[in-house]
Design goal:
Largest sheet: 8 strands, mixed
Order of helices and strands: EEEHHEHEEEEHH
Radius of gyration: 17 Å
Helix content: 25-40%
Shape: globular
CATH class: Alpha Beta
Structural class: alpha+beta
Strand order of the largest sheet: 3-2-1-4-5-8-7-6
CATH topology: archaeoglobus fulgidus dsm 4304 fold
Mean pLDDT: 92
Number of domains: 1
CATH superfamily: archaeoglobus fulgidus dsm 4304 superfamily
Distance between the termini: 38 Å
Number of helices: 5
Length: 189
């Protein structure tokens, strides 16, 4: 991977659908413009694999097959890795050794000013006011994140929110994966 690009964000998803697993990573600049996109083909474990791996099968597929291959395939090293699944925080942090967060929209009323942040009442979870009008974002940091790391993410989000909606890349990735699946299905016919 290239040196850290302080102007890119990497959104990553790993999902299970109808007994198969797939994932994608989208790196974008702070305007939301893609700089790299990678995805995995669906992985459908066999009956034998289900028996042999037991309860560890899902963790193995998600963390070792999908997550690691997506991280290694990305040609940029982003300033921040962003996921939307709690169970990806620790493995993503371990694999990237970079700043990692889980990002969600919130229904909380806006905080006083752009750039404000406050604890959401749970350890490592903050509300961040990235722009002047939207509800604050709910951001979960990996365990033991420092206050400086929180402030760094706040600054990154304030800059990026001027030209992009910060949770929107997840929906683009989902649409891209669905388009890829549709193409594969039509090619199979």
């Amino acid at each position: 991977m290239a040196p850290a690009d302080n102007n890119s964000l990497a959104y990553i998803i790993v999902e299970t659908e109808e007994g198969s697993f797939r994932g994608a990573v989208l790196a974008s600049d702070l305007r939301g413009i893609p700089v790299d996109f990678r995805y995995t083909e669906p992985i459908r474990p066999t009956k034998l694999e289900k028996v042999l791996y037991g309860n560890a099968l899902e963790v193995y597929i998600k963390e070792e097959l999908i997550l690691e291959s997506l991280i290694n395939a990305l040609e940029v090293k982003p300033a921040l890795w962003i996921c939307k699944e709690q169970n990806l925080l620790i493995p993503l942090r371990a694999a990237t050794k970079s700043k990692v967060i889980m990002l969600m929209n919130s229904n909380h009323p806006p905080l006083d000013s752009t750039g404000d942040f406050e604890s959401a009442g749970e350890s490592g979870v903050y509300l961040i006011q990235a722009d002047s009008v939207s509800a604050p974002l709910k951001v979960t940091f990996y365990p033991n994140a420092t206050e400086n790391e929180v402030k760094s993410v706040v600054n990154l989000f304030v800059n990026a929110s001027q030209t992009m909606e910060l949770t929107e890349p997840f929906s683009r990735m989902q649409k891209a994966l669905n388009a890829i699946a549709s193409e594969i299905q039509s090619d199979d016919k």
